[in-house]
Automatic annotation (TrEMBL):
PANTHER family reported for this sequence: MALONYL-COA DECARBOXYLASE, MITOCHONDRIAL, PTHR28641
Protein name: DCMC protein
Domain of life: Eukaryota
One of the protein's GO biological processes: malonyl-CoA catabolic process
An example Gene Ontology CC term for this record: peroxisomal matrix
Gene (UniProt): Mlycd
GO molecular function: malonyl-CoA decarboxylase activity
Length: 95
């Protein structure tokens, strides 16, 4: 979960999210909301994402500002749960 959180939140290509699905949702103003362990146990889900599934949450009153923040300064809005996982990854990582 920590590695997945870092991949979605911290790994970048030209400043934007490396994952194309994450990039799509973040450009449209979502918040990286929750990472679900074994959320997709289909063969495709296991093969593509080790069974993890991500929820992006759209707060309608914040989508425009979230989108502008991401597109302008490349900042990802994320929930406390995701940020805690990112923090744990950073503390334990040798990257």
């Amino acid at each position: 979960l920590r590695l997945c959180a870092w991949y979605l939140y911290g790994e970048k290509h030209r400043g934007y999210a490396l994952n194309p699905v994450a990039n799509f949702h973040l450009q449209n103003g979502s918040v990286l909301w929750r990472i679900n362990w074994m959320g997709d146990t289909s063969p495709r889900g296991i093969g593509a994402s080790c069974g993890m599934m991500v929820n992006y949450r759209y707060f309608l009153e914040e989508t425009a500002s979230n989108s502008a923040l991401y597109l302008g300064s490349k900042q990802v809005r994320a929930s406390e749960q995701v940020l805690a996982l990112v923090n744990q990854f950073q503390q334990n990582s040798k990257l």
